[in-house]
Amino acid sequence: MKQTNVFYQHGTLALLVPGLLSGTLTMKELLQHGDTGIGTGEGLDGELIILDGVPYQADSFGKVHVIGNDFSMPFANIHFADFKFLTSLKDADPEKFANAALSGKTNANTFFSIRVRGSFSYMKTRAVVKSSRPFDTLEETAKKQSIFEKHNIEGTLLSYYSPTLFHGAAVGGFHNHFLADDHSIGGHVLDFKLASGKLDIQLFDTLEQHLPVNNNEFMEHDFSKDNIADAIERAE
């Protein structure tokens, strides 16, 4: 039975900060825990979005690929989709989107996902250039990114919201990825304008946090030396 109340996360954003970018979970393993999600590949190899059980990678060249079972990741979020209609929006920027997703509240104390299917008058995304060993820090690696912009595009924005309490384990607040219906643009969302669309929400009462305990670099790293919160905010 699919547990639609569970938000599954492999790795943490904190482990990316010092450059622990090795792939420690395969896509085949990840898809055992859901059919909808986001993530990144080894060495921050592009930006991932999983829709209807199909994993897509938006790479730094602006191409979108379906990726295979052996693709490995240092960090990913996934769940089994069971979205419920929340509201419709028109002429919405990220602030208006966030307010609608939070139903007017200033914060939320649990994890949830928002799926937006609609027409975007503007979309701005990024994808990081894949790095090789020895990996740089998250901030240094994220500087080598490609920026993409499109106007008047149909697509799906997939967002995960994490409570501020969990910032470091995940992104406190909203973490948004996008995929155009025609696959002409995808990636981590930097800005957008939603012309019109439908917001669906899925609330989670359980976080399943999976850590790469078989990776020596992770197990031996001293995270007390890392300025995790600030580094994530600058990189995201």
UniProtKB/TrEMBL annotation:
PANTHER family: ALPHA-ACETOLACTATE DECARBOXYLASE (PTHR35524)
EC number, UniProt record: 4.1.1.5
Entry keyword set: Acetoin biosynthesis, Decarboxylase, Lyase
InterPro entries reported for this sequence: Acetolactate_a_deCO2ase
Gene Ontology molecular functions: acetolactate decarboxylase activity
Pathway(s) per entry: Polyol metabolism; (R,R)-butane-2,3-diol biosynthesis; (R,R)-butane-2,3-diol from pyruvate: step 2/3
Gene3D superfamilies per UniProt: Hypothetical protein, similar to alpha- acetolactate decarboxylase, domain 2
Biological-process GO terms, alphabetical: acetoin biosynthetic process
Protein name, per record: Alpha-acetolactate decarboxylase
Catalytic activity: (2S)-2-acetolactate + H(+) = (R)-acetoin + CO2
Native species: Liquorilactobacillus uvarum DSM 19971
Protein family according to the UniProt entry: Belongs to the alpha-acetolactate decarboxylase family.
